[in-house]
Amino acid sequence: MRKLTAWVALAASALTITGCSGDSGQRGSGSQDSKSPTSAASSAAPTPRWAAVKGTPRTIPAVRSFKADDGTGWRVSKNARVVVPDGQDSPLADEARRLAADLGGLKLSWQDDARPGDVELTLSGKGKAAKENNAAPASTADEAYTITARDTRLTLTAPTDTGVFNATRTVVQSVRAAKGVPEGTIEDRPDRAQRGLLVDTARKHFSAEWLEARIREMADLKLNQLQLHFSDDQAFRIESSSHPEIVSADHLTKAQVRHLVKLARELHITVIPEIDSPGHLGAVIDKHPSLQLRSAAGVSQRGAVDISQPKAAQIVDDLLREYAKLFAEEGVPGPRWHLGGDEYRALTVQSPGTTYPQLARAATKKYGSGATVSDLTTGWLNDREKTLRKAGVKHVEAWNDGFHDSKVVTPAKDRTVAYWTGKEIGAREPVTYLQEGRTVVNLNDEYLYYVLGQPNDFTYPTGERIYKEWTPAVLRGSKAVPDALAGPDRIPGARFGVWCDLAGSQTTEQVARGIRLPLAALSQKVWDPRQPQLSWTDFKARAATVAPAR
Fold first, then answer.
1. For residue 99, which phi and psi values (nearest 5 degrees)?
2. 293 φ, ψ to 5°?
3. Tell me: the pLDDT tens digits for 104-128?
4. 440 vs 482: CA distance, rounded Å
5. What CA–CA distance (Å, rounded) separates 266 from 97?
6. Which residue, 335, 412, 356, 414, is CA-closest to 381?
7. Which of 71, 74, 77, 75 shows the shortest CA–CA distance to 1?
8. Contact 232/202 with Cβ under 8 angstroms?
9. Which parts of the chain sit beneath pLDDT 70?
């Protein structure tokens, strides 16, 4: 029996074929379509035989339920195909092609003719959600899936193509780890709907190729959100037609962004843009110095715009409208957007109204005699959110220190809180936002902040700490909020943040290596609420096998 040369491409994934009956001959690396009942690909084939796949599926994140049955499980064999009974127009067509390629170049069938050795992809859902291609899931139920390995066949079933995609990642990882899928049934779904990575591309330029590799790495781990913080005091990193003057020399072109958004959508990942304001706008101010916030004494604040000036709002709104179109996901509801809102320097002094009288005057003029600088700042974010919603954005969030103690103007009621710290002036406990009825996404800077150079008492987070100590309920420090407020409906998930405060401290390659295990640990903890079964040592070893570095 000759080895199958198509598997050379999967050597990096530790994938080999052994014990397959009738596997003589060579197969090309590209997948082929089987369309005709009379084609060789769809003709009768003997039942393949192989050594039994033993144990439970070995994946990251671990599957939540596996019921073993008697049998040999499923392995890739010479005549195996990926079958989509609903045809090439099915939302599962791209999932089928990707899985076929990932498994070494399997053939494809677009009809209801699954046979021994095949992998069949089917949709169990009804209505609009089941018919849409690469649509953002409405809930974790849309991401659930079932895998059945029985009588040498493998069946992947889910209510949406997102669920089927998740199932294909489980199959690929199981093949990497055990060269197949054990006999039985996997029932799996995520605990939290939002699972992701944030990258600060403003302070440090990351190439499109680097970001693409992270998107593929995230897909391996069933992570589904990538937040790009591309504007800050140091640089503005995406091409702009409305304000080209603010764009830094090293930046992503719009064509590169479109490619990344398209790839992410195909891998069921949502890209979340962030233009932080009214602080962290130094790159804009550098080209528009008249917008710099200055105190009554003439002292300027780096990165802070003077929000009493209409031109400041005009420029930011221009950018929001421009990038809302750029990041729009074709065929799915409007994208998510992060407004920033953190660390506005006007609110870090003891008496904002006295220090910045122009802001105090603007507040009372716009909102009445009782309004303060906090009200003006809250109104600024509300106005920016209105701009985004007019542009079609459906979900808006801001940092927790962008929710101010304002008396006259309140933050938009459906804005999500991205909780990162409790160290700011006037810090509020995360439980207060939950008690207000807000949803809170976890970006806890104690566990989930990878800050280059480790300034201000930050230390590089480890996968081990996340794996052993952190849960989505741990929003601030190491203390969890009460269980009654910690459910997936209140804390929908978490993101791991890469911040480039001291940009030269690590190369982009070092960053990729440094975040690999923390991302794997995060994926486990947001997927399954139970205590992990593996020791950290075993989990780390599994990650090396099923989620190789990219």
1. -65, -40
2. -75, 130
3. 999 999 999 999 999 999 999 888 8
4. 14
5. 12
6. 412
7. 77
8. yes
9. 1-44, 330-334
